[in-house]
Amino acid sequence: MAPVRRRERVRYWFDRTMSKGTPALIGWLGLASVALVLVVASAAVLVAPDDSDENGHWPGMVWRSLLRTLDPGTMGDDTGTGPFLALMLLSTIGGIFIVSSLIGVLTTGLNAKFSELRKGRSRIVEQGHTVLLGWSEQVFTVVGELVEANQSKRRSCVAILANRDKVEMEDAIRARVGDLGHTRIVCRTGDPLKVADVELVSPGTARSILIVTPEHQDADTRVIKVLLSLGARDWGRHRPHVVAAVHDSANLPAARLAGGERAHVIDADDVAIRLIVQSHRQSGLSQVCTELLDFAGHEFYMRPEPSLAGLPFGESLAAYDLGVPAGLRRADGTVLLNPPMDTVIRADDEMLLLAEDDLLIRLAGGQGPPVHETAISTAVARAPVPERTLMLGWNHRAPKIIELLDEFLAPASELVVAAPRADPTGELAPPANLKIDFVRAEPTERPALESLDVGSYQKVIVLSDAQHDRDHADARTLVTLLHLRDMEDALGAPSSGGSQGDPFAIVSEMNDDANREIAQVTKADDFVVSEKLISLMLTQLSENRHLYDVFVDLLDPDGSEIYLKPACDYLVPGAEANFATLIESARRRGEVALGYRLTARFHEPPGYGVVLNPDKAAPLTLEADDRVIVLAEN
After folding, report:
1. Residue 81 belongs to some domain of the structure
2. 352 with 335: CB under 8 angstroms?
3. Which of 590, 574, 582 is nearest to 631 (CA)?
4. Could you report the per-residue pLDDT of 525-578, keeping only the tens digit for each?
5. Which of 137, 293, 445, 593 has the fewest other C-beta atoms within 10 Å?
6. Direct distance between the N- and C-terminal alpha carbons of the chain, in angstroms, rounded to an integer
7. pLDDT of 497
């Protein structure tokens, strides 16, 4: 091997120095400038001593040479001998090259820095922020809800990490979400599956981490991989809670194992199925659930209240001016939703309260609003009766929906499935209470719907067609709903299952909440937008992980659930009362009244007749066909 020459070593050293980027280039140009100034000044002292004496000797020549290097126009007023002027010209020409190079280097360096900032590859320095990993339509709902939730805070931060351009993400959020209030949105470009990229959003100092469900066919697989990636990280003393959702129930055990104890994973399919079935049983339930999960409305808060220690839970219902107690959270983490009214409140319990904002929760200062005893009515026992249900369409959720309907409906109930495909009901387990029939029909065609005799059913379920993309499936649902609405108007008389003036109640499944807003013209009773509801639920959990047990209990048929019951079971129709009277009437039945729904405003946005946590003292008159929203076991 030939020996390495000194020249090669120096050249290699120079190459390594230059490869360090803009700072190294600026340093070399600075050295070149110093060398040029010193050489020209020294030469002027030697070859033009008279001119040097007139210009301050060597220090003065250094200053003049520096000025000519930085500003070529300075030479215009020079006088002196030929050698002196030649040296000043040399300084000026050298300065032109050096300054031009310096400007080019600075411009290139600044452009590179701007490009680096645009790429979003710098690590953020935040504490107590919320981290979103991934990107999909879900981001806009989550960010909008976090902005609403943080309105009462002076400053808050949401950090988003996704494989997208940083500026594009920021522009999309500004366009879709609008006013961000006190919330700062920080976007970073990176892969949530890579531990090094996740570090860009400082997960170790975050309050919570929300894994965004990607819009891929293998979305659950990617969510599980992100959970595993987070599990492999060394968190140290502080580990934020993680929330995520999977869309296939079969993937739920794997996702929870990957996430560990600090992760809350929601079964999105199960939530959507249960909400569809419960909305089938109770018209208006989807709107109530949206109100409870939406930070713009009323939601659940947990708050210690030592002053209530020793009181039965039933007495706490009248203890608040603002806020409705819905349950307790014990010191060991156990959540009691609508506990027995004689349950004693402990000093270390937290009250579960329904309120518009945690800052608006207030204990009563004295005696509460009066209870109008004459307005309280007695509930009439109603035996379950068989129902006829029409299911239009078919997707992967349908078998589970039918299974739950079989559990809830009275014996001898009927279900007719109409879909443009071969009969899939033969693969179902034999039902106990349902008689199932299948008709091959196209739900978007009016003659096919008329042949089904829609008016003979009390309930209609319209499922999203999984054979089409999301927008096309929603468009088909809209066409079906318009046909059904027109047929309702023609039929006129209401049945026991529909709302006021409607012969049957309609529950429809939508994919995009924007399409839900368009669909309001159809006046269907319930729109179940599972993606939005899951986004709202994940956002609630990111703010308070203890609400997980509350949501599980609400969706579990074995525990207390939300019911919309006839108002005549609680208050005398037309009698003047107040919400405090309604709370007392529900308490005597072992239930918690959360609000009511006015049938006359059933189809009026934005609330669609739903009123939660109203003023307890304000006058209230309910009619027989209105509904009371309660937490009850049955």
Report:
1. yes
2. yes
3. 590
4. 677 777 888 888 999 999 888 888 888 888 777 778 899 999 999 999 999 999
5. 445
6. 90
7. 45
The pTM of this model reads 0.77
Interatomic CA distance for residues 127 and 205, integer angstroms: 5
Two tokens, residue 616:
């307890």
- The SS3 of residue 438 is strand
Which of 119, 140, 167 finishes a domain? Answer: 119
Nearest to 529 by CA among 541, 512, 514: 512
Question: How far is Cα 461 from Cα 286, in angstroms, rounded to an integer?
Answer: 13
Give the separation between CA 577 and CA 370, rounded to whole angstroms.
9
Domain that holds residue 174: 130-261
> For 250-331, where are the alpha helices, taking DSSP H only?
252-259, 268-281, 285-293, 313-316
Q: What is the DSSP string of 363-421?
A: E-SSS-PPP-GGGB--PPP------EEEEES--TTHHHHHHHHHHHSPTTEEEEEEESS
CA distances from 437 to 390, 424, 477 (A): 10, 11, 22
Band of pLDDT at residue 496, cut at 50, 70 and 90: very low
Provide the β-strand partners of residue 509. 528
CATH of the domain at 216: 3.40.50.720
Number of compact structural domains in the chain: 2
Nearest residue to 461 via CA among 372, 527, 522, 412: 527
Q: Specify burial of residue 394 (Cβ count, 10 A radius: 0-12, 13-18, 19+).
A: buried
Instruction: Say how far apart CA 623 and CA 566 lie, in whole Å.
Output: 9
Q: Are strands 526-529 and 350-355 parallel, antiparallel or unpaired?
A: unpaired
Separation of alpha carbons 264 and 210, rounded Å: 10
H-run or E-run covering 355: strand 350-355
| Local confidence band at 591 (pLDDT 50, 70, 90 cut-offs) | very high
The predicted-structure confidence for 192-239, as pLDDT tens digits, reads as follows 988 889 999 999 899 999 999 888 778 899 999 999 988 878 777 788
Which stretch of DSSP H or E encloses residue 99? helix 82-119
